[in-house]
Specification:
Layout: H1 2-11, H2 13-35, H3 48-67, H4 72-95, H5 101-118, H6 121-136, H7 138-147, H8 150-166, H9 183-207, H10 213-220, H11 225-238, H12 243-255, H13 257-268, H14 273-298, H15 316-340, H16 342-353, H17 358-367, H18 374-399, H19 402-425
C-alpha cells in the first residue's frame, strides 16, 4: 500500500507543485485584493485571480524550461513584466499613483510559482508568506520609518557594517604572544556586545517612559546601567518623594547585568555555566528582590524621561575601542597568568570591573577554553561584577540623596558578598 501511495505521489509531483504555486499566488492575491476591495470592478490591476494565475504561470514556465527550452522561463517572465508595466503605466496616468510595490509583488508571485515547481516548496512558501506580510503592513512599516531618527538608522547600518562586511574579512587564527589574539573571535565579541546594546537601546526607545521607572530600569540595563544610575541619582535630589522607586529602578538595571553574563558565557564557553549559574543567579536575585520590595511598598504613578544613552553604542570608534580593550585584556591576562598565576587574573578582573564587565566577561570566557581553568574564569567574572556594582553604588551615594544611596548600597554589598562567597566555595 505504501509503495502504491509513493508511486502516486511521484507520478503526480508536478501537479502537486503546480497546485502549491497556484495557492501561493492566491495568498498574495488575497492580500492585494483586500487592499483594493473598495475599488470598482475593472479598476484593480491585479487581484486574487490575477495573482493566482501568475503563480501558476510561473510554475508552468519552470516546467517548460526543464522540458522544452532554457529560454522558456525568461521569455515568459519578460512577457509578464511587460504586460504589467503597460497596466501600471495606464494606472499612473489615471490615478497619479507612482507606487510600484504591487508590480514587484506580482513579479515575485511569478517567481515563487517557479521556485515551488523547480526548486523547493518550503522556500517558495516562506517567500510568499513574508511577501504577503510586508505588503499587508504598509502603514506600520511607514510609521516605523517616520519614527526612526537619523542617528538610529546610522547605528543600524554600522551594525551591519561590522557584522556582514568586516567580520568575514578577518583571519580566524591565533596571533601575537602565545597566539592569544584571534582577530575573528575578538571582532565577533565586538558584534555580540554591540548587538545587545542595540537591542537595549530600542527597548528603551520604543517602550517609552510611560511604562514607569521599573520598566525603564529593566531595559536600560541592557544598554547602560551606569547611565541610568547617574540619571536616577541626580533625579533623587530633586524628587525626594520617589527616592525608593528610583532606587528600585537602579537595582533592576544593575541586576540585568547578570543575565547578560550568563548569555556571554553560554555563547562562548557553555562549560562555564554549571559553576557560574549559582553565584550569578544569587547576585542577581539579591538585587531584583529588593527592587520588587521597594516597588510594592512605594508604588505610585510616575513618568520619567527614558535614560537613553547619550553616546550611541554602535559608533564605529566605540566598537574599535571595545575591540582594543578586549585585546589588551587578553594580552594582560596571558602575561599576568604567566607572572602571577591566578592572582594576576583576579587583579585584572577587579581593575577591569570598575569600568566595564562585558569586556572582562568575554575575555575570561574565551581564555577559559584553553589558558585558564573554568573555576578561575568564574571567580574572575564574579569579582568583576561585584566591583562594578559596588562602583555604581558609590555613584548613587555620592550623587544621589542619602535615602537612595542606602536603598542601593545595602543590596549591592549583600550581592557582592554572596557572589564572592559562592564563587570561592565552588
Amino acid at each position: 500500500m505504501d509503495d502504491v501511495a509513493s508511486q502516486f505521489l511521484t507520478a503526480n509531483e508536478s501537479a502537486i507543485r503546480l497546485g502549491v504555486a497556484l495557492l501561493l499566488g492566491a495568498l498574495i492575491g488575497i492580500e492585494r485584493g483586500w487592499v483594493a476591495r473598495e475599488q470598482q470592478a475593472g479598476e484593480r490591476i491585479a487581484g486574487v485571480r490575477t495573482h493566482s494565475l501568475v503563480g501558476l504561470l510561473g510554475g508552468i514556465a519552470a516546467l517548460l524550461s526543464e522540458a522544452v527550452s532554457d529560454w522558456a522561463f525568461p521569455l515568459v517572465f519578460v512577457t509578464v513584466a511587460g504586460i504589467s508595466l503597460v497596466a501600471w503605466r495606464a494606472k499612473f496616468a489615471d490615478q497619479h499613483d507612482y507606487s510600484i510595490t504591487g508590480l514587484v509583488g506580482l513579479l515575485l508571485t511569478f517567481c515563487f510559482g517557479a521556485v515551488a515547481v523547480a526548486i523547493d516548496l518550503t522556500l517558495a512558501a516562506a517567500g510568499a508568506v513574508v511577501t504577503a506580510v510586508i505588503l499587508d503592513n504598509k502603514r506600520e512599516i511607514h510609521g516605523l520609518l517616520n519614527k526612526l531618527q537619523a542617528h538610529e538608522l546610522d547605528a543600524g547600518l554600522k551594525l551591519l557594517l561590522i557584522t556582514v562586511v568586516m567580520l568575514p574579512l578577518l583571519p580566524d587564527r591565533g596571533m601575537g604572544p602565545g597566539e592569544v589574539l584571534n582577530p575573528y573571535e575578538i571582532w565577533w565579541m565586538v558584534v555580540l556586545i554591540a548587538s545587545i546594546s542595540f537591542v537595549g537601546y530600542f527597548a528603551v526607545r520604543l517602550g517609552g517612559a510611560e511604562k514607569g521607572i521599573l520598566f525603564t530600569g529593566l531595559f536600560a540595563g541592557l544598554s547602560s546601567s551606569t547611565a541610568l544610575t547617574l540619571h536616577f541619582a541626580r533625579m533623587s535630589r530633586h524628587s525626594r518623594e520617589v527616592e525608593a522607586m528610583l532606587a528600585a529602578g537602579i537595582l533592576l538595571a544593575c541586576g540585568t547585568m547578570f543575565p547578560r553574563i550568563l548569555l556571554y558565557a553560554a555563547v562562548i564557553n557553555p562549560s562555564l555555566l554549571p559553576a557560574l549559574l549559582l553565584p550569578v543567579t544569587v547576585m542577581g536575585m539579591l538585587l531584583y528582590l529588593p527592587a520588587l520590595y521597594l516597588w510594592r511598598h512605594h508604588r505610585q504613578a510616575l513618568r520619567v524621561d527614558s535614560p537613553t544613552p547619550i553616546q550611541n553604542p554602535l559608533e564605529l570608534r566605540t566598537a574599535l575601542l571595545f575591540g582594543g580593550l578586549l585585546a589588551v585584556i587578553m594580552l594582560l591576562g596571558e602575561w599576568l597568568r604567566g607572572a602571577l598565576g591566578e592572582a594576576g587574573i583576579y587583579l585584572l578582573a577587579a581593575s577591569s570591573g570598575v569600568a566595564d564587565v562585558d569586556a572582562i566577561t568575554l575575555s575570561l570566557s574565551r581564555m577559559s577554553l584553553e589558558r585558564i581553568s573554568p573555576s578561575t574564569a568564574v571567580l574572575g567574572i564574579v569579582i568583576a561584577a561585584a566591583v562594578n556594582n559596588v562602583f555604581k553604588s558609590g555613584l548613587a551615594i555620592a550623587l544621589g540623596s542619602r535615602s537612595l544611596g542606602t536603598h542601593v548600597a545595602l543590596p549591592m554589598v549583600a550581592s557582592m558578598v554572596a557572589g564572592l562567597a559562592l564563587a570561592w566555595w565552588m
